[in-house]
Write a structure and sequence with these properties.
single chain; 5 helices; alpha+beta; 138 residues; Thiol Ester Dehydrase, Chain A
Length: 138
């Protein structure tokens, strides 16, 4: 069983966001806001072009937590997120995280992680916290 201690960095997830992914997410989610899928509409917005859905970008955080904590993430994980900046098609984003606290309970521990997603520019698109409960008895 892995040892999670404060200061441990989680394995980052790096992805390039494409307009095709954004369009497919719009279809799958039913969120067809023209800011995401209509180039002409988005060109007139404050952003100048389409932007990715926040939850499409946040999915990389869930993937990172799943890689780091396996089944424990899937059965007990939860996140609180703040969306700070847009992500554009062709942006490369990195989901990152660090164990901040380990709360020992009877036969489990709650692992508290600081998490986020940053653009290739270094700008934070998402910041937040994730918590997951792991079994400490083998």
């Amino acid at each position: 069983m892995p040892s999670w201690t404060p200061g441990t960095n989680l394995e980052p997830i790096i992805k390039t966001i494409t307009q095709k992914q954004i369009n497919e997410y719009a279809d799958a989610s039913g969120d067809s806001n023209p800011l995401h899928i209509d180039q002409q509409f988005a060109r007139k917005s404050q952003f100048g072009h389409t932007i990715a859905h926040g939850m499409l970008v946040a999915a990389s955080l869930s993937e990172m937590m799943g890689v780091s904590f396996g089944i424990y993430w899937h059965i007990s994980g939860r996140m609180k997120l703040i969306f700070k900046a847009p992500v554009f098609p062709r942006d490369t984003v990195t989901a990152f995280g660090e164990v901040k606290e380990v709360i020992d309970l009877n036969s489990t521990s709650e692992i508290v992680c600081g998490i986020g997603v940053k653009r290739q520019t270094g700008e934070h698109a998402i910041l937040g916290e994730a918590r997951v409960t792991v079994n400490t008895i083998q």
